[in-house]
Amino acid sequence: MKITRVEAIPFAIPYSKPLKFASGEVAVAEHVLVRVHTDDGIVGIAEAPARPFTYGETQRGIVAVIEDVFTAQVVGLPLLEREVVRGRLARTIGNPTAKAAIDMAIWDALGQTLELPVADLLGGFTDRLRVSHMLGFDTPDKMVADAERMRDTFGISTFKVKVGRRPVTLDTAVVRALRERFGSEVELYVDGNRGWTASESQRAMAEMADLDLLFAEELCPADDVLGRRWLVQKLDIPFIADESVPTAADVTREVLAGAATAISIKTARTGFTDSQRIHHLAEGMGLEVVMGNQIDGQIGTACTLAFGSAYALTSRRAGELSNFLDMSDDLLTEPLQIRNGYLHRPPGAGIGIRVDPDKLTRYRSDR
């Protein structure tokens, strides 16, 4: 059960429809497949999505830090010493998705070794999650059409609408169009990716006050300390902290500052070990939780599903589990399937997924 090798393999898969939002645009999934090998011949896998506009990590940077720094720190450790791994990786500042992928690949290897699903090792609450779909910037008619496609094809009835453009009426018109088209048949919430000021956010939310929104997420920057606190006090729906809470300490800071009343947990940035810390903290503080998406492929989505299905709190709301549908292909031997608005955990030990070697050869970008 000892770690013998860590691989970081870059790959690139185009999106059939690029996702546009306030802090950037993604047209190609330039991610990194992380594989942790053990002396028993087990190989655990996870996915690290490069998001330079969010965490400052590039694909080349993720590969470099894993190969040049992290591998030497974890090789030789038993799979059970996850806290030791965490402590060693923490010596290096930043690099959250690289650290998270190593952590999740270790959990996957441990689950395979014990012949148990990771979700059961974490908590085992349920075998499925209801799915929410993110709608990126576009015209109202195209975003409504995208939502119709997701509802009619996959049964999805919860939508996170990307906002944060100027003028704010560009986005409020979209949300209104969605509500007018679907009425009470769907749940809607908005995510600004820090694109508006606090005053713009307040104006937008006032314009949408009659649209029965579930949440508002990261409408303005967290470093606008007074403005954000002012905004949150004016809202009558939960305000989700996402990019502003990459650690449990950040969750505590934002909540005690009055700058957030709910959080998004993203396993792509906190793995399973730190996501557990954040989940338990949120549960203790009485916060609502949404399982977020880092525009993951199917590997990352399976990891989110494993964690989110493990607990009652993370299973309560629809999880953001569908953006892989906008990719032109993926790496798994058995693709994930969303049916009737739900994504079920794959059967089998570990995370329950396997990489197709032919697809990896086709899409890897280091050869």
Describe the fold and architecture.
The chain is globular. The chain folds into 2 domains: 120 residues, Enolase-like, N-terminal domain (Enolase-like, domain 1, 2-Layer Sandwich), CATH 3.30.390.10; 225 residues, TIM Barrel (Alpha-Beta Barrel). It is built from 14 helices and 13 strands. Helix 5 packs parallel to helix 6. Strand 4, helix 5 and strand 5 form a beta-alpha-beta unit. Strands 4, 5, 6, 7, 8, 9, 10, 11, 12 and 13 form a 10-stranded mixed β-sheet that branches. A 3-stranded antiparallel β-sheet has the order 1-2-3. The chain is an alpha/beta fold.
What is the fold's blueprint, element by element?
Elements: E1 3-21, E2 24-38, E3 43-49, H1 59-74, H2 82-90, H3 96-114, H4 118-122, E4 128-135, H5 140-154, E5 158-162, H6 169-182, E6 187-191, H7 198-207, E7 216-217, H8 225-234, E8 239-241, H9 248-256, E9 262-265, H10 267-270, H11 273-285, E10 288-291, H12 298-308, H13 312-315, E11 319-320, E12 338-339, E13 342-344, H14 357-363
Parallel strand pairs: 4-5, 4-11, 5-6, 6-7, 7-8, 8-9, 9-10
Antiparallel strand pairs: 1-2, 2-3, 4-13, 12-13
Helix pairs in contact: 2-3, 5-6, 7-8
Structure in a nutshell:
The chain has helices spanning 59-74, 82-90, 96-114, 118-122, 140-154, 169-182, 198-207, 225-234, 248-256, 267-270, 273-285, 298-308, 312-315, 357-363; strands at 3-21, 24-38, 43-49, 128-135, 158-162, 187-191, 216-217, 239-241, 262-265, 288-291, 319-320, 338-339, 342-344. The protein is α/β, with parallel strands linked by helices.
